[in-house]
Amino acid sequence: MNKLWVRMQHGMRDLDKREQEREELNILVGKNLSRLSQLEGLTIGLYKSDVLPRILSQIVTCKDRIAQQYLMVILIQAFSDEFHLRTLDQLLESIHKLQEDVDICSILMSLIERLANYCVSHMSSLPTDVDVFQMFLTNIDELGKSRKTVPLSAVLSLQNSLIILVCRCYKDKPSYIDDIYASCRLVIESRSTISPDDKQSIQQVTKLLQTPAEIAKSIKPLLGLKNFRSLMDALPNHHKRNIAQYLVSENQTCISNVEEVIVLLDYLAPITQRDSDVNDEEWHDYQQLVSYAISLMYNKDPELMVPILQKVKEHFLNQSATTVGHLYTLVPLTFKALSLVQAIFKKQNEDPNCEKRIKYVFKYANEVISLVKNTDIVAAYNLYLQCTLQAAQCGLAEFTTAFLNQSLTLFEDEKMTQSKQEYNGLRYMIGVVQRVSCLDNETFQSFAMRIAQLSSKLIVVELQSRATALSTYLFTNLPERKDPKLAMSCLKKAMSASSSVVEPDVLLHLYVDLFDHYVYFFANHPDVAVEAKHLNAIIVKINKLISINNIDKSHKGLLHYRNVMNLITEKQNWQTYIKKQQKKDSPQQEVIDESGLNEKEALAEASRWKEIQI
Is the sign of the CA dihedral 222, 224, 228, 229 positive or negative? Predict the structure, then answer.
């Protein structure tokens, strides 16, 4: 039959007829081998000693490329995987004796994939007494060395099949993946290098590097490998960056120890050093990915998390290792530190060293922010405020004072060059300081006064007015810290500053916002001494501004004004305040709403609001 196949190759001139008869012979041979594999009494021993050697001898000695190709494929398909496992050495030895132009790679790939599927379908690993992996790896290495005509991409494709076999059948042997990477690197070096134009080889290497993570749904298996980085470096620069991107963007697993962090940072080197061919948009995206990578570095145990923070800081301060901006590295590191503070503080009742640990982390955060300060004042300022808030929540007055002092010092040194930055900075600070409750009254009042003074010194008058109005809340937020006189003084200064604004559109927004502040204090803080006459004076100003400048009815400031006036109208109705009976669950069950007033109190409150002339 084998000789007939060869004669068909050389004795027929009609190509179509020859291929048709070849296909028929292919089916016939396949059926015969299949029947042979199903014969009763055919044991693995008999197959190994008599059947397989004769079949392989026929295949090897025919010397015909197409015949050898067909017969090897049929042989692999016809006999069971158990037989192939026990005779793998014989099969592989014969495969390498085939003609030079036989597609050995497709034959080996078919065999590897069959055995990998067998392992998965039988829910077991491959026999321990047969070193399947090493046999395949040795033969692939030999193929790469002895058959230089085999394309590099074909050899790498074989390695991809082998790595899938390892991931499925040798889950407890990550070192096998490392062996494959080392083998790939050697075969690449034997062919000099991978050309940027060799897209197939690049694709195969990329697949090799990603497959273990894709199968495990985590990059963790890659972090313990010695040869991952060396194979990655075989790629052209652009594709190395793609691998680094993949490691971050496709990972949802926390990197939980220093050793893993060190390895990951090494793998990310292609996107932490800017190459000349990287444009601004790409560099921005790479730096954001680095920030995300930092966010994945976490361990709930403070003893393990602190060394991680230290190692990451050291790495990104090493200018020879990275050129990523501090905004993308030290800023997220600070937030990681603050997150650790929260985790430690939640367990304060269980940990006698809680305060000591928190203070250590705060000192770390302060060191990091002092470095950020050298390149980004606004970021450093906001981080100091975040630390202020966190220290206050932990009840650490000393650290709260220190962080707040540093943020104020940054502001007072006039490091913020834009008026809008200054205004937003004060607005954030006022919001933070309002929530600080661990300071003694004297210290708090000192900070409140400094903030109010800074607000009144803003150059842009509109922003000065707005910031001064917000400062009012620092003197009214807590009963023990109330200072009605200073609060009223801030409101008056804000109103006075607004008179210097010339642009009608800006002035309308400002007047309405100030009116809103006055109404709030009139409603909720009678001790601030905001009276109806103050509100009436502002109403006159707003109405005059609208009339003179013919403001459009759809103007946002005007819509805001109407909402505030509607609130006043509602407050002037005494029934708004009256105690109401609420029915719950059934008509028989009635509950008095204790938040309301009795009729006399309601009339008095409505009368107070009616003094406002709307």
Answer: positive
User: Which residues in 181-195 are b (16+ Cβ under 10 Å) and which e?
Assistant: bbbbbebbeeeeebe
103, 232, 118: which is closest to 157 by C-alpha?
A: 103
Q: Which residues pair with 590 in a beta bridge?
A: 583
The DSSP bridge partners found for residue 582 are: 591
pLDDT by residue (tens digit) across 407-441? 999 998 867 778 888 999 999 999 999 999 999 99
Determine how many CB atoms are found less than 10 A away from the CB of residue 103: 16
SS3 297: strand
Window from 252-256, 287-291, 354-358 with minimum mean pLDDT: 252-256
List the structure tokens of 139.
Answer: 């033969």
Burial class of residue 279 (count of CB atoms within 10 Å of its CB; 0-12, 13-18, 19+): exposed
Q: What span, in angstroms and rounded, lies between the C-alpha atoms of 177 and 213? A: 11
Neighbouring residues of 1: CB distance < 8 A, sequence distance ≥ 6: 25, 28, 29, 32
Residue 323 to residue 119: CA distance in whole angstroms: 46
Q: In what helix (H) or strand (E) does residue 160 lie, and over which residues does it extend?
A: helix 152-169
Query: Residue 297 pairs with which residues in a beta bridge?
Result: 255
The pLDDT tens digits of the residues spanning 390-410 come to 999 999 999 999 999 999 999
| Helix 484-498 × helix 504-524 angle, to 10° | 160
Residues 6+ apart with CB under 8 A from 320: none
Q: Which residues contact 514 (CB under 8 A, 6 or more apart)?
A: 465, 469, 491, 494, 495, 498, 538
Predicted local distance difference test score (pLDDT) of residue 592: 52
Range name among 380-394, 565-579, 587-601 with the lowest pLDDT average: 587-601
For 464-518, give the DSSP string. Answer: HHHHHHHHGGGGTSSGGG--HHHHHHHHHHHHHHHTT---HHHHHHHHHHHHHHH
Per residue, what are the HEC states of 328-379?
Answer: HHHHHHHHHHHHHHHHHHHCCCCCCCHHHHHHHHHHHHHHHHHHHCCCCHHH
Are 167 and 211 in contact by the 8 Å Cβ rule? The answer is: yes
pTM: 0.81
Residues 6+ apart with CB under 8 A from 339: 298
